[in-house]
Amino acid sequence: MSEQEQQAGQGPVARAEAAGTSRRDFLRKSAAGVGAAVAAGASASAFTADQVNIADVTIPSIRIPADFTASLAEAPKPGKFEGSGMSGAEVFAQVCVKEELAALFCCPGNYTVINALAAAGIPAYGGRMEGSMCAMADGFSRATGEVVATSGTEGPGFTNMIMNIAAANAARTPLLVLASNMMIAGDDREAFIQTGYQQPLTTGIRKYGKRLIDPSRVHEYAGYAFRELKSGVPGPVHLDFPAEVARARFKSPDELKDYYDKSQYRSTSRPHPGAAEMTRVVSMLDKAQRPLIVAGQGVFQRGGWDALMKVAEKGDIAVATSGPTRGAFPDDHRLCVMAAPDALLSADLVIFVGQYCMPSPGEYRFSPDIKAVRVHPDQNDLGRNWPLDLGVVSDEALFLAALQDAVKGKKRGAWVDEIAKAKQAYQKHLDDTYQLGLEYSKKTNHLHPAVIGHETQHFIDTGTDDRLAVVSGGGGWTIGLFSGRYMRARRPGQMIVPAYQYGAIGPDMAMMMGACAAVQRGVGPQQGYEGAPTICVTSDAGVAYSMFELDTANKYRLPTITIVYNNNAWGVWTNAARSARSLQMYLFQENLRYDQMAQGLGANGEYVRTVDEFRAALARAWKLARDEKVSSLINCQALKEFTSPRDYPPGIALNAEPGVGAVAH
Amino acid sequence: MSTAQRVGDLLEHYAGRGVFRGFGRQVQRGRSAEFRLRWHRDQVFQWVWNESKQTLRIGCVLPAVPANSPMYRQFRAWLAARQDPALPAHRRCDRGKVALRTYNRGGDVALTMTVLDGDLDYAVNKLVSLVNEIYLDFLSSGLYFDWLVETFELDPDHPC
Q1: How far, in Å, CA of B36 to CA of B47, rounded?
Q2: At a CB cut-off of 8 Å and minimum separation 6, what does A54 contact?
Q3: In this complex, is the C-beta atom of A346 within 8 Å of any C-beta atom belonging to chain B?
Q4: Is residue A44 over pLDDT 60?
Q5: Is the dihedral of CA A263, A266, A269, A270 positive or negative?
Q6: Which superfamily does CATH assign the domain made up of A275-416 to?
Q7: Would you call B18 and A342 a contact, using CB atoms and an 8 Å cutoff?
Q8: Which end of chain B is flanked by fewer CB atoms within 10 Å, N or C?
């Protein structure tokens, strides 16, 4: 559709309506056309033909290669000691299988290891950029809590992953970072290319790291890695494999040191809360009039959501969730204060459970008089940042299970009423902002971020088969702050927060693709939602980092919908508003066509500037994703000035923490 | 115990709980006592207790707010709303116990709480809560985002 047509309101829907075709019929036929083309082997970019004729030059359509499809269908072929023996990489892969490593996301490189993992039967995904594939792995884990691996080649691939390893570290993601590191024999010689020492580069952004040196210890260090990944507070583990280790061959287990079963190299024992501490917690809860539990990532990763619900309902205890995964407590529950920021200031007791990334007083919207209890699996983190009235060393799920039994049933009617009023007040604020956004959108013929956020959640609630099935998330500065307020999580793992704590702009699109892979396979809390598309709301700044993975999503038939808030600038452009010579550094070309780029990568591209166009594009994208497993990118043209409170009040604002839209802690 | 001692002890209690990042008792003059608190936005707030007037005064609770600005008008309205009887008691500044006044001197917004019934503990606790809410609630509106950036030279990557 031409820009002139858009401006004149003569988009495809308008043209169809003018021709007497109903909007519904138009959408149905449009999507069916796409589906037919995809089913026939063409990609979404060439919706009606196997070939495209441009300026009398016929070029073949984008398609998934037959070799790719055949390779995916191959049965696993794990290594074995018999015959030519197992390579070090195969020994490592064997441990990964036994430890039920959920997936590998990588780019080629570290060939011996990634080939061994794929051959052993680990679900493996190959993509376009190591950084994005690392983010995909992180997204998969954020949506499931599972251990996931990522890999890149020696130097450039590995260093490309750094930003997203750091993001995973901030989120406490159990991410296994694998990378090859040439040959030990080549150390210090700059032999050929890509020589580099990896371990110093991940210092500070990992839980554990090791360069493997002794081939006979490959099984031992595989155990070391999974012990770290599956014990205590999770975090990235970085192993690099010199060729001497990955390619070493073993014909018998006795050639390997510490060739133990996982039941011997790690324990599943978890700390229980002490009886005296539980008595104090119960007493503090009993005295509190307005108690609140902040359920952090530990509650999600330890699967403590059922006990959390029972504790909350038994004692009329308010709940907020925090961390990179949302939904461990449903946003629409009467006791949830995620969308009730005013109630947060009334709480008189907070119990942090599994809050791995601790705020300091003043960073959470709490009263200075609030009493604080913190439950954490490691003693050495209790008291960090937030002074405590009581620290409890315990596994999160075990604590909640114990509290479920111990807490006294209590009705706190006044507190429940206050929460309800705070929710109503916040909802009114959101609705008012949305109405303003609608006015601004109509006036400017550009989409306001509040409209995008509201309409996206409205579509999930009313335009999809099952609102619980859709996993959403996103990032960006302006749109991240706006959409975070409108998007809701109603079941564990229904939302992920890509920007959580590290604040990286860009990995969100890839993270949502990783989450999508988890949904398609029904891993962990995504079980039962197989086939559902995922929705990512991101920015024009962010999309540049991950967009090429639309190729990966389409290749693996991961049905993703990416909504791009295109305001022609880095969202933080206002920081240069008073520095005339600096502003140019914050600006992009205007009206870039990310939708056309998406089409070039085999996805469906949509360009919208009005709310009606956006709704129609969402419906088309949804149908394509659900029925044909084709990804879409919706380019929402906006104005950077929407963030200005002077031009378009109320402008931009940070979101209350904890709460919907929180990203810091 | 003198009232100045009591005010100091109450404030020090908050410092001991990590609410303030720093706290100091300054020289006491007559029936006045001065306290300095390092708190929101890493600012040092100067609190003065005047026993004769029964007032707690913060010389600058918000900087760089012109007296004729919409922001100052909105601040005064927000402050009045903190005394609304419709608010629950734990969130309200009870008009029967304390009186609130604000002044603007060259853009520095001062806040004074007068203790009406001698309940010093109530007044100190309420004023601490009130300042906390100014920074966590009043300033959370997008209308003041630019003001925050300009006044505190905020880095958007570290806005808190």
Answers
A1: 6
A2: none
A3: yes
A4: no
A5: negative
A6: TPP-binding domain (3.40.50.1220)
A7: no
A8: N
B146/A386 CB distance under 8 A: no
DSSP 3-state assignment of A160?
helix
**A650 contacts on B by Cβ (under 8 Å):** 141-143
Beta strand A249-250 pairing with A86-87: antiparallel
Q: How confident is the model at residue A4 (pLDDT cuts 50, 70, 90)?
A: very low
Tokens of A506: 């860009």
Residue of B135, B141, B145 to mutate, testing the A interface (most A Cβ within 10 Å of its Cβ): B145
Residue of A nearest to B154 (CA): A575
Which stretches does DSSP call E strand in A541-617?
560-566, 604-608
Q: What is the pTM of this model?
A: 0.92
A654 with B140: Cβ contact below 8 A:
yes
Give the pLDDT confidence score for residue B27 in this predicted structure: 78
Both structure tokens of A525:
């809390």
**The three-state (H, E, C) secondary structure of A91-116, written as one string:** HHHHHHHHCCCCCEEECCCCHHHHHH
Task: Name the CATH superfamily housing domain A445-643.
Answer: Thiamin diphosphate (ThDP)-binding fold, Pyr/PP domains (3.40.50.970)
State whether B142 and A414 contact (CB < 8 Å): no
User: How far apart are the C-alpha atoms of A617 and A237, rounded to whole Å?
Assistant: 41
What ranges do the domains of chain A cover?
3-60, 72-265, 275-416, 445-643
DSSP string, chain B: --HHHHHHHHHHHHHHTTSSSEEEE---BTTEEEEEEE-GGGPEEEEEEETTTTEEEEEEEE-S--TTSHHHHHHHHHHHHTT-TTS-GGG---TTTEEEEEEEETTEEEEEEEESSS-HHHHHHHHHHHHHHHHHTGGGSGGGHHHHHHHHT-BTTB--
Cβ neighbour number for residue B99 with a 10 Å cutoff:
16
- In the sheet where A148-152 sits, what is the strand order? A124-126, A104-106, A148-152, A175-180, A237-241, A208-211
Kind of pairing between the strands at B32-38 and B44-50: antiparallel
Q: What single-letter amino acid sits at A23?
A: R
Which H or E run includes A360? Answer: none
The residue among A539 and A12 whose pLDDT is bigger is: A539
Please answer yes or no on whether B146 and A346 come within 8 Å at the CB atom. Answer: no
